[in-house]
Amino acid sequence: MQKFVLKDEFIKLGQLLKAAGLADSGAQAKEVIEEGRVLVNGEVEVRRGRKLRGGDVAEFDGERVAVCANDGPTVTIDL
pTM of the prediction? Predict the structure, then answer.
């Protein structure tokens, strides 16, 4: 599972998929979300603008990303 540390209060689902490398582009993120292929906290999510905050977990294509509260001034992804 990847860990994504928030820089701000939240990140939108489509942005998270791109930042975590689960989608190659915003268009691809939009497509897979609208197709119902992305889970947030174990539930299908079809809104790419869904705001994710610390404690949320997104999943796509067998990959999981845990969103963590802001612990510092930079955004990091542990692969």
Answer: 0.83
